[in-house]
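Supplementary Methods S3. Complex input for the magnesium ion-bound model.
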Amino acid sequence: MILFEEALEIISKYAVPLASEKIRLEDCLRRVLATDIFSDMDMPPFDKSAVDGYACRRNDLEKELVVLETIPAGKIPTKIIGNGECSKLMTGGMLPEGTDTVIMVEDVEITGPETIRFKGDRTAENFCKKAEDIKCGEKVLDKGTLIRPQEIAILASVGCANPEVYRQPRIGIISTGDELVEPSEIPALSQIRNSNAWQLMAQAQMANCIATYFGIARDTEKETLEIIQQAGADSDIVILTGGISAGDFDFVPAVIQQAGYQIKFRSLAVQPGKPVIFATREKQYLVALPGNPVSSFVQFEMLVKHLIRLITGNSGQKMHLKIPIGVDYKRRNKTRKGFFPVYLNSDGMAMPVDYHGSAHIHSYIHANGIAAIEIGENEISKGTLVDVRLI
Ligand code: AMP
Ligand code: MG
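Predicted complex, serialized as C-alpha cells:
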C-alpha cells in the first residue's frame, strides 16, 4: 500500500503530454495551449478615447474651443488640434494629434454652432494610451494555460485565430460485474443498476475529454480481457470500475497485465478508494477504480484528473483550496488519508455533509467539495484549514 502523494508522483513520472493540433478559436474553450502566445500589435493600437466627448489640450480647459470635426470610432482624425481647438470624439475613437485630454460631453456647454466650453472644475485624461495594456511582441499567454472565455478574448485580440492546443484525451470506460444492469432496465433481485460508468462518462466529459463507453464486462477473465483490449485499441486512458477488491471473482489485475499493461501501483492508503490500479502500456494508461460509487467518483477527481492535467499539458491553477471547516469533524479510522464530502457555505466554511461511506453516492448530491484528512488524524476542530477540491 502506498501513500496518496506517492501515487500522484508515480502518475507524474509516467504521464507524457499528448500531441498538439491547431484548431479554430471558436472550438478551443477548455483546451490547453501548446505554445506561448505573443501579441502581433500594441493594445490599444492608438490613443483611444474612453468616453464620448471632445479631445483638446489640457491648457485650454478655461477657453471657449472651436470644434474642428467629429471623429467616430473606427475613423482616422483628419485635423491636427491647435490652441483653442478641439474635435468631437466617440468612445473608442482615435485621439487627434495635438491633444492630451478628452472632456466628457456631460461636462461641456455648447456655446455656438461650432464652439463649446468646459464647464467642470477638473477632468481625468479619459483616454487609454497606445500600448498601455500590451506591447507588440509581448507574451500574453503561457504554454500550458487552460483556455477560458477570458483567454479567448486575448487570443482573439492578438489575432490568434487558430491556436495550437493539446489533443483531447480519449477515455474508454468499462464497468465490470455480473450484478449490473443498465439504467433503462429494472434490476432483478440481487442486481443493481450500473451507475459508475455513466458517472465516469460525465466526469470525463466535464474534464473536456472524449469519452466512449464500452459496456459491462461480466465477471469472467475472457470477457474482461476482450473488453479491455477493445477499449485500449483507441483510448489514451482506459478506466475500469469494479472487480479489483479481493473478492472471489476479482481477477482484474491479472487480466490487465495479459492485455499488455504494466501495473505501477495497486493499493493506496486512502479512504475511500484503497484498491486502485494504475498501469501503463507505452503512452497509454489504465486506471482501475473500485466498484463502490463514491470510491470511483472521488478517485476519478483525485487521480484520473491529475493524469488528465498532465497529458493535456495543463500547468495552471491549483487543484485544491485551503478552507476553514465549519464544525468539529471526527472519524474512526486514521490509518489512511480520508476524503469526505463538504458543502462550501456562503460564509466560506466547508461544512461536512451527511455521509455513510463509499456506497453512499447520494451524499455527494449535497456536496460541492471533497475535503481531505491526513493519515494519523481522526479529529479536525472547527476553524482549522482543510484541503478542499471543488467539484
Ligand atoms: P467491486 O469493486 O466489483 O467488488 O464492487 C464493489 C461494490 O460496488 C459492489 O457493491 C458493487 O455492486 C458496486 N458496483 C460495482 N460496479 C458498479 C457500477 N458500475 N455501478 C454501481 N455500483 C457498482
Ligand atoms: Mg464486482
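The pocket of adenosine monophosphate (ligand 1) is lined by residues 175, 177, 179-180, 192, 194-197, 241-245, 247, 290-293 (CB under 6 Å). The mean pLDDT is 96.
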